[in-house]
Design a protein that fits this description.
By secondary structure, this protein is of the alpha/beta class. The chain folds into 3 domains: about 90 residues, Beta Polymerase, domain 2, CATH 3.30.460; about 110 residues; about 70 residues, no CATH class. Helices cover about 55% and strands about 10% of the residues. β2, α2 and β3 form a beta-alpha-beta unit. α7 packs across α8, α8 packs antiparallel against α9 and α11 packs antiparallel against α12. The protein is globular, with a radius of gyration of 20 Å. The termini are far apart. The relative contact order is 0.10.
Length: about 300
């Protein structure tokens, strides 16, 4: 039996909105009924340029039950490509928004707050810029949703925040540049964003949401402490801290380090390990830093 026969596929995001450009991902939702989607098939899809969001039916159903804004995103901006038994179409048709999204905003603010833990490394600014790009979008979506506005693209979010008086028209261009910076970071590990540009963007976002966050640089030992103290249930935040902590080790050839780097590169596929193997991962990194006598002072 074809393992993909009962999977549902849908395109979503900018290519459905028709506002995609050279910095846009080609977002593809994959919903599978089995225990795990075949890795070989996933690799082929990613090699073909798809940015895959992979969910089991159970997990996607749970998000729908919780009123997740990701499901609302799919309701508003997706095109089903294949759905042989109608599972995905039925789930989207029955979706209902639920209550306040303040808790979603608070979780996103914790991610954005990582700009107070920037590694003192040549690519530290680039890492922080990517964090700001992810954090801004993750905060803007629930902030607007709680005001009855459902916007998922950068232009729509910025236009909505201008109408609400949260940012000025002049702030839109620096915020829009985050898409270019994020795209560059995912391709090459650097963004080209200057320290002054990052400071300006953080200031705009801080003013918009009144969150009181300012960028701070940390030495390597402080990065290790922050990683060790990160709550295990905040696996994505922990993964981004892990990524920052390992910047000095990016060229190291070692099987254990390679396995951790793989987890960083594919968070949806391997990020669960950050929760279940947190202590082991921190110990591995601390041991190797001690052996190398690495301390970014």
């Amino acid at each position: 039996m074809n393992p993909l026969s009962n999977c549902s596929f849908a395109e979503f995001g900018s290519h459905v909105r028709k506002d995609n450009d050279s910095h846009s991902d080609r977002d593809l939702l994959i919903v599978y009924p089995a225990r795990q989607f075949p890795r070989a098939a996933l690799g082929l899809l990613r090699a073909a340029g798809a940015s895959c969001s992979v969910y089991s039916r159970q997990r996607l159903s749970r998000l729908a039950h919780e009123g997740s804004l990701f499901i609302k995103h799919l309701v508003d901006e997706s095109h089903i490509l294949r759905d042989s038994d109608g599972f995905l179409a039925s789930l989207l048709a029955d979706f209902t928004l639920r209550g306040s999204y303040t808790h979603v905003f608070d979780d996103a603010m914790r991610i954005f707050g990582l700009v107070e833990t920037i590694p003192q490394h040549v690519n530290g600014i680039s890492w922080a810029t990517d964090i700001v790009a992810v954090g801004f979008r993750a905060m803007a979506i629930p902030f607007l949703a709680d005001r009855g506005i459902f916007a998922f693209g950068m232009k729509d979010m910025c236009d909505s925040l201008v109408r609400l008086g949260r940012i000025n028209a002049a702030d839109v261009e620096p915020l829009a540049a985050l898409r270019e910076f994020k795209s560059a970071y995912r391709r090459s590990g650097t963004t080209g964003c200057t320290s002054a540009q990052l400071t300006e963007i953080i200031s705009i976002i801080d003013r918009c949401f009144s969150i009181g966050v300012h960028r701070r640089f940390r030495r390597q030992r402080d990065m290790l402490i922050a990683l060790e103290q990160n709550p295990t249930d905040e696996w994505y935040r922990g993964l981004r801290l892990l990524e920052a902590t390992m910047l000095p080790m990016s060229r190291m050839k070692n099987p254990r380090i390679d396995a951790i780097q793989k987890m960083i590169r594919s968070p949806q596929a391997y990020g669960w390990q950050m929760k279940h193997r947190h202590r082991e991962i921190v110990t591995t990194i601390t041991t190797y830093f001690a052996g190398l006598n690495v301390d970014a002072a």
